[in-house]
Design a protein that fits this description.
Elements: E1 2-5, E2 7-10, H1 14-25, E3 30-33, H2 41-49, E4 54-55, H3 59-65, H4 74-79, H5 82-91, E5 96-98, E6 103-106, H6 111-124, E7 128-130, E8 135-141, E9 144-149, E10 153-156, E11 159-161, H7 176-183, E12 188-194, E13 198-200, E14 212-222, E15 225-236, E16 240-242, H8 244-249, E17 262-267, H9 274-287, H10 293-297, H11 303-312, H12 326-338, E18 339-346, E19 354-359, E20 364-365, E21 370-371, E22 377-379, H13 393-421
Parallel strand pairs: 1-10, 2-3, 2-11, 3-7, 11-22
Antiparallel strand pairs: 4-6, 5-6, 8-9, 9-10, 12-19, 13-16, 13-18, 14-15, 14-17, 15-16, 17-18, 20-21
Helix pairs in contact: 1-6, 1-13, 2-6, 9-12
Length: 422
């Protein structure tokens, strides 16, 4: 059965729903094809089920956060800014708040309020949503495209591909869109998990599982090469580490396919200099020699971590502070400023928040999100080779690219209809 639609959106996640809102408000009748039984499943899981909708910064801050590829977002952000995101959800009945980290969340701390508002806006804009209807492929039909499902064949002048990447495959993001884009001539930059927790080689990590350090400086090493730095909150888990600082490290290019060469150093006092710590240890050794050294270290780092640092430096947990030699102080201060651990592996797409890699940005017009391989194809969201750090940056990219794609897809649909009437 062949049908026709103004704008077909393949994938009902963050970018797809926002594209539907934009296309509907621009006068088109959007149709979302979604293989899940409901839209926006990944939205519900994001930010610890709170949904960090954006970051409190100007467009330049978003662009900078994405690194060299961030310049691709200039036009999308000009059309839908971080302020527009906040205004959109506020107007849709979702009050927002800015946390100390700059992250913007709904006041309710409930991701489903974000999703409910987005779905309501899409429906109000005239969007039809078809659930449990996977897209089996997209075929060229002259200047149009045919979207093939198990039920029907839908021909459209504008198809927006917003199927996401490979992260959180339990949400349905299993990389289907890459094959569709490839069949239409696109190149896929090799993908890998990003913003994903790390398993470490040191067995003592499990002993301090659950310990959170609010400010840690991490350096990633690929052999002798410094591959990247990250700073922020850090959580020890039974396998390794998680939290913003470790997750952000996984965005850097390194030997993730063979982690035997990978290690990281942890700076537990990034605001202090090693020489200052050495002087502090010397003074404490003289003034509080009767105290356990672990109790002294607990003034600067959590006790459980201090115990581990002492053991890594060859010191007994019950040693007194008195009589610290210069070499002892140097080893302890060095461990507090750069404790080294081997990386066993990352925890894969199942735990990754985003996918690094995707459709090559050189094959997409950043001014419209239209494919340079077919005039009826638009792309938005995580399917693109764009990944940003923790903090709402990736959602902002989804909102902005989705909005631009929806607006331009609606314009193409209208232009094509006018030509057919002529």
């Amino acid at each position: 059965m062949t049908e026709h639609a103004d704008v077909v959106i393949v994938g009902g996640g963050a970018a797809g729903l926002m594209a539907a809102v934009a296309a509907g408000q621009a006068g088109a009748r959007p149709l979302i094809i979604e293989k899940n039984k409901k839209p926006g499943v990944k939205i519900l899981m994001s930010g610890g089920s709170r949904c960090n909708i954006t970051h409190n910064c100007e467009n330049s801050g978003i662009i900078k956060a994405f690194g060299p590829r961030g310049k691709f977002l200039h036009s999308a952000l000009a059309g839908f800014t971080t302020r527009d995101t906040v205004r959109f959800f506020e107007d849709a009945g979702v009050p927002t708040k800015i946390e100390d980290t700059g992250k913007v969340f709904p006041v309710s701390n409930r991701a489903h309020h974000v999703l409910d508002a987005l779905v309501a806006e899409a429906e109000q804009a005239g969007t039809t949503m078809a659930f449990l209807e996977p897209c089996l492929g997209i075929e060229p039909e002259g200047d149009q495209l045919a979207v093939i499902t198990g039920n029907r064949r839908i021909v459209s002048n504008a198809v927006i591909l917003t199927t996401g990447g490979l992260s959180f495959p339990g949400c349905g993001t299993t990389g289907d869109g890459y094959a569709m884009a490839t069949r239409l001539g696109h190149t896929i930059v090799p993908t890998r998990p990003a913003l994903v927790p790390l398993a470490l080689r040191e067995p003592w990590i499990a002993e301090i599982a659950g310990l959170t350090i609010p400010d840690v400086g991490l350096t990633l090493w690929d052999g002798a090469r410094e591959a990247g730095k990250s700073r922020g909150s850090h959580l020890f888990t039974h396998q390794g580490i998680s939290g913003p600082a470790p997750l952000n490290l996984t965005r850097f290019d390194a030997s993730w396919h063979n982690t035997s060469a990978l290690a990281l150093t942890m700076d537990f006092l990034p605001g202090a200099q090693e020489a200052e710590l050495d002087a502090w240890l010397r003074d404490e050794s003289l003034a509080q020699g009767r105290k356990l050294l672990s109790v002294v270290l607990a003034e600067r780092v959590p006790r459980a971590l201090g115990d581990r640092i002492l053991e890594e430096c060859g010191q007994a947990r019950d040693r007194r502070a008195a009589g610290l030699s210069r070499d002892d102080r140097k080893r302890i201060a060095g461990a507090m400023k750069g404790l080294r651990c081997g990386i066993a592996r990352h925890l894969g797409y199942e735990k990754a928040e985003v996918t690094s890699g995707g459709v090559d940005l050189r094959e997409v017009d950043s001014r419209s999100m239209v494919s340079l391989k077919h005039p009826a194809l638009f792309l938005a969201g995580e399917i693109l080779d764009l990944d940003g750090p923790i903090g709402g940056y990736n959602f902002q990219a989804a909102w902005s690219t989705g909005w631009l794609a929806g607006t331009r897809a609606a314009a193409r649909a209208a232009e094509s209809q006018n030509k057919s009437h002529d």
